[in-house]
Amino acid sequence: MKKVIVIGAGPAGLSCAYELSKKGVEVTVFEASNSVGGMARSFDLWGQRVDLGPHRFFSKQKEINTFFKELIKDDYTLVDRQTRIFYNGKYFHYPLKFGNVLQNLSLITIFKILWDYLIQTINPIKNPKNLEEWISNRFGKKLYTIFFKHYSEKLWGVPCTQIDADWAAQRIKTLSLTQAVISAIFKNNGKKHKTLVDQFAYPHNGSGTLYERAANSIENNKGSVRFNTPIKRVLLNPDNNKVYGVELYDGSIVEADFVVSTMPLTTLIKGFNNTPASVKTAINLLYFRNTILVYFEVEEKELFQDNWLYIHSPDVKLGRITNFRNWCPTLNKGKETTILALEYWCFKEDPMWSQNDGELITLAKSELLNIKLSKKEINIINSKVIRVPKCYPVYETGYQENLNVIIDYLKSIENLLPIGRYGSFKYNNQDHSIFMGLMAAEKITGNSSIDLWDINTDTEYQEEGKIKDVLVY
Ligand SMILES: Cc1cc2nc3c(=O)[nH]c(=O)nc-3n(C[C@H](O)[C@H](O)[C@H](O)COP(=O)(O)OP(=O)(O)OC[C@H]3O[C@@H](n4cnc5c(N)ncnc54)[C@H](O)[C@@H]3O)c2cc1C
């Protein structure tokens, strides 16, 4: 009988524990906070339901969709995605559509965009290595400057030339001039079926419902989820290079045959004694970006139509605004107000991270009014700040070499499985973390030889799949 400890009750940890508990494995999840879902959790706010910023669920992979359907059943809705870029007082569809871009800009800018796009198409950069090169290659320099440079630099906090191209290939849908022409000729945009870009699945009571139900199932299957129990460190036996359990902050030790860790990779490694010097150097070179969310309850029902807006203007720090009223009617519980979440990104050393709630609310209020996104008056009746540390592993150029040193070291410890977004230093969506969790469970039960480090390393754009082929079966 195997005994497994899972660190963290986010999507990665809970999907792993859920799968193990179904198979009768003795599993205990230790969660630092008092709730499930990690960064994908949902919570009640001012009588409504919200998430930590926008959380859409999509995947082409059968195992992930099966996990979703087993737990959510039909208690979800397919949301028609509407997301736009707010730039210079105008709205642009995102993913970008050529026709819409051309409609919104001056003739001179359009000429420059088309010229740069043409030049780049004829003479692309071979092997683009950083974000600037990758995006310029697909969109041309002018479009890159208008639509990607400022936003990406707000998000990452470093110049785009220092961000690895890895990230862009998976995340950014490229432009198609052909598609723009087809769309202009055919009414239905030339597409018969909606793709994962156009629509996404959303549980009626918020994205966190999936994880609340996973935790209930784990308990029903005789597993356990222990809240408010952060793990101080994972215990490694240097004699056989195996882990044998974890240490809690009160000094107590819990033993296990396997440890699945979704705690930050940096914290995991720093908790070991006697790590090789090369690993110590490499781990100190990996770092994260933090998020600050400022929630506002606004006395208005129809501020704008989007699920979320990207705010590109370089004159405000604000990066993204989620409008929870436009996700699913069950979220607002019949209330007449709108809840917005304004997103800011910073490093833990930046002054913004240590600003108090009052200062952050004042900043967010003034920026919301400054960008004038609505002609209607914005009357804020409630505000709240939430800080989310370490949410973006920074893919700085060269990060992969440092990560590889750590991966090689961790692979030598065969009964320790580090997975998840900050757990494996991968820019995971929920689906990647869930897949890592499910596969970790398969490895522990001996049913898979998959290399968990290979998950979320492909450079294929993930959202081309047809919605009819995935969730609705
Ligand atoms: C603003 C924002 C928007 C996003 N939008 C989307 C989206 O639209 N679609 C999508 O699919 N994904 C989205 N994501 C990403 C998604 O939230 C993550 O991919 C997912 O939550 C990662 O799951 P995880 O289990 O790997 O990590 P986490 O969700 O971070 O869970 C890790 C858990 O481990 C716990 N923990 C940490 N340290 C310890 C410790 N020492 N001891 C015990 N417990 C510990 C944490 O408290 C946490 O509960 C978004 C994320 C953010 C921040």
UniProtKB/TrEMBL annotation:
InterPro entries: Amino_oxidase, FAD/NAD-bd_sf. Pfam families: Amino_oxidase. Signal peptide: none annotated. Residues 12-302 form the Amine oxidase domain. PANTHER family: UDP-GALACTOPYRANOSE MUTASE. NCBIfam families: PRK07208.1-4. This is FAD-dependent oxidoreductase.
